Amino acid sequence: MGIVTAASLRLPASVGRRDVNVPDTARNAAFDAAYDHDTLFYDAIALPRGAALVGPSLLNLRALVEGAQMSLDGKPARIRRITSRRRSDEIYLRGPGAAQNLSIRIGTFQTDLPLTQPDTAAFAGLNCSVIFNKNNDPEGIADFARFHQHHHGLQGLVVVDNGSDAYPLDDIAAALDPVGLTQWRVLSIPTSWGALAEGGHVNDALFFQTAGLNIARLRFLSRARAVLVCDLDELVLPHADGHSVFDLARRRFWGFTPVRGQNCYPGPDAQGRLRHRDHTHRPTQARPPSTKYCINPRGLLRGVGWEVHKPDFISVDKAMDDRGMRFAHCLGISNGWKNPGRAHGHTDIALDADLAAAMTAAFGTATTLSPPPPLD
Fold first, then answer.
1. What is the pLDDT of residues 158-179, one digit of tens each?
2. Could you tell me the pLDDT band of residue 288, with boundaries at 50, 70 and 90?
3. What share of the chain in percent tops pLDDT 90?
4. Strand 101-106 to strand 109-114: parallel, antiparallel, or no bridges (unpaired)?
5. Could you report the per-residue pLDDT of 2-47, keeping only the tens digit for each?
6. Of 41, 81, 209, 372, which alpha carbon lies 20 to 30 A from 160's?
7. Which helix or strand (DSSP H or E) is residue 246 part of?
């Protein structure tokens, strides 16, 4: 348990800059200020027979990587493969086992950095989750863990922190310690999240989250019993038949179960700092659900990477929906960087008795219950 860091590399402008991957019509000043032109990788992770460098989509920088001279512990290392995902790339190097250091030379640019060492044994066999954070309330992170510990038997948590500066990371540690998880890590990667585009390209330059998920997979969670992939503001509700989300992923043939969501709101009397437990209401008219998932990293999909809404493969999730498993998307919890203020000012909401009961069971917050309107 504790706070750990990543081994990141940003290229000097004289070496190369990443081309912008969206058309000019999808860009604005905020996009141009946030776009990640220079990160080559967010983390360099030692593997049994080499290393994995995980970062943003290489785009035009791939040619620089393929022409680079790299070594592990002073011995030449060759690229075994480059795996491209929707918004990230993984560079797999072949080299000596148990390497400690990476050296890279691109033209006249040369740098050395220590590899981060995998910590998969600590999470082996545990029910785990991975979430992302930047300046969210540390008590909200602890509440996320408490809810899933109570309702699903969560045992391990990886918090990927994207440069929080509103408090020291020790505050997250202080909030998580009393929860009683078997293992947790806060992985600090203070880099650009990526840029939010417009129109049909809105997410194309948001590089960090997909890469961060696969860093967590390779560095911590590849031997976990099952891993819940969702956000800090999403709480997986108890299954109608009493199954935990981890058990359901384990018993599925694919080793994977999608979880569909429902936007949830604080009650009209909620004031001040909002907590998960305040989100006891949902819309009277159902909204199209988003999807997150739980996966067995040692199951049939063990060679598949992780994306934000599903594993990185054809949309089998649509054929595997389990209507008994849902998550509550608590819109007043995160910083709401895509839509600030999204949790307030709604009148088309009603108290959801099942949601309120789940909050009460996890947090002990009393709520007056009334029947919810039916969902379609």
1. 999 999 999 999 999 999 999 9
2. low
3. 76
4. antiparallel
5. 999 999 999 999 999 999 999 999 999 999 999 999 999 999 999 9
6. 81
7. helix 245-251
Q: Provide the angle, in degrees to the nearest 10, between the axes of the packed helices 353-363 and 138-152.
A: 100
CA distance 87 to 90: 11
Q: How far apart are CA 87 and CA 73, in angstroms?
A: 30
Q: Please tell me what DSSP assigns to residue 124.
A: T
Strand 183-188 relative to strand 156-161: parallel, antiparallel, unpaired? parallel
Query: Does residue 338 carry a pLDDT above 90?
Result: no
Q: What is the rounded distance in angstroms from the CA atom of residue 376 to the CA atom of residue 364? A: 30
Q: How many CB atoms lie within 10 A of CB 354?
A: 17
Q: What is the dihedral of CA 9, 10, 11, 12, to 10 degrees?
A: -130
Give the position of tokens 């379609």: 376
Per-residue tokens: 302:
């063990």
Identify residue 37 by its one-letter amino acid code.
Answer: H
Structure tokens at 98: 């148990």
Amino acid (1-letter code) at residue 52? A
Residue with the two structure tokens 């400690």: 100
